[in-house]
Specification:
The chain has helices spanning about 30, 50-70, 105-115, 135-145, 180-190, 200-205, 215-220, 245-255, 295-310, 325-340, 360-370, 405-440; strands spanning about 20, 35-40, 85-90, 95-100, 100, 125-130, 155-160, 170-175, 195, 235, 275, 285, 290-295, 315-320, 350-355, 375-385, 400. The protein is of the alpha/beta class. Strands 7-6-3-15-16-17 form a six-stranded parallel beta sheet, with helices on both faces. A hairpin with a 2-residue loop joins strand 4 and strand 5 (about 100). Helix 8 crosses helix 9 (about 295-310). The two termini are about 35 Å apart.
Length: about 450
Amino acid sequence: MATASTLPPFGARPRAGVRRLSSMTATREDLVTGPTVVVPPKHMMAPSNAHEVAEAMEMAKHHIDQIASGNISPTTPQPTTTTDAFAFAFDIDGVLIRGGKPIPEAVEAMKVLNGQNEWGIKVPYIFVTNGGGKTEEERCLQLSQQLEIEVSPGQFICGHTPMREMAERYNTVLVVGGEGEKCRLVAEGYGFKDVVTPGDIIKDNQDTTPFRKLTDDEIEHSRARNFGEVEIEAIFVFADSRDWAGDQQIILDLLMSKNGRLGTRSETFDEGPPIFFSHNDVVWSTSHELTRIGMGALRASLEAMFKAVTGKELITTAYGKPQIGTFQFATRLLQQWRKDTHGIDSPPDTVYFVGDTPESDIRGTNDYNESPLSDNTWYSILVRTGVYRKGSRPQFEPKATVDNVLDAVNHGMQLELTKLLRNKTIASSRQDGETIMEEE
């Protein structure tokens, strides 16, 4: 297990330019104005063990954004107590959180990663979730409150995070899903210039959805415009739909339209805008004892309805896990983190991905690990606290199956210790052999 340069006993000092905001009082708007670490009130006076990783990942994400914008600033590796040899990536729902509450072992697992282990090292970690409808900043605030640890927006990759790269390609877009106006705010935060919601469309023509009427709050916040003069260039499903019937009606209208203009019908049914989903999970884990249907089910339903109405196959695109692009984005973040902290321009040798859904978490990890696009090892670990339950056989086999996230962390760290001891033994044997040859 790689060791790192040491700091004074009290740990890493906050870096200049990185703000520390209370998880109880900070807002989403507070977090979008610069590098930030969200801190539980009990750690506001002095950084906790989790501060170093949270801050470093936030700066790595900031540097990735700078590179994308062409505004590159040189970085100098900072003193660190964190290993660079391996890292962990976690799904959230069913792994760390269930029904809005932390899974008991999750709190202890974070402590282990932040240095409370027999080797006294810290391990970098990020969160890769298909959950959507909230900004990375909102996710950060929520998880900090739930696990009572220091975290930063830079540690979060949501299913719709890679969609930010589409903002320059499309002008007027329909964004579907989530609560209220949250998905519109997410899309606008990503740089989309003209964001339409189903509420806007219903406000313009209430007969669009015969069985759905807007509430007073929806009428107030939906934006008035004449959609007979608007061409919608793309459809993005950012989060789970709260109104399947209404949302599907509007989506189908657009998919069968001429160039995304509502009220028109294409004769060939291939002139409508493209549609993108932030993930493809058919089911997910909640506080209910059985899994609940998710966005993947909506995607399957739309594809079936489109074919039933038009006789044609609907081409759709999904992001999130198990799509390779999500794992590439995670690798870029970890590589930038390693470059910033250790001066090594390559990702950690091994990333242990901990998930609860074989069809997305395990499949995606395995596919990326076997892909020529991967420059390092991604090791899949399945836990039994979410979608997957003991006694069933997963469709996609993980490298390891454990009871909970704490067991997953201990499993990965034990593998790294074994690897370190093996490498030391090989190095020692080689040194002894060279010594014997010199003596002869």
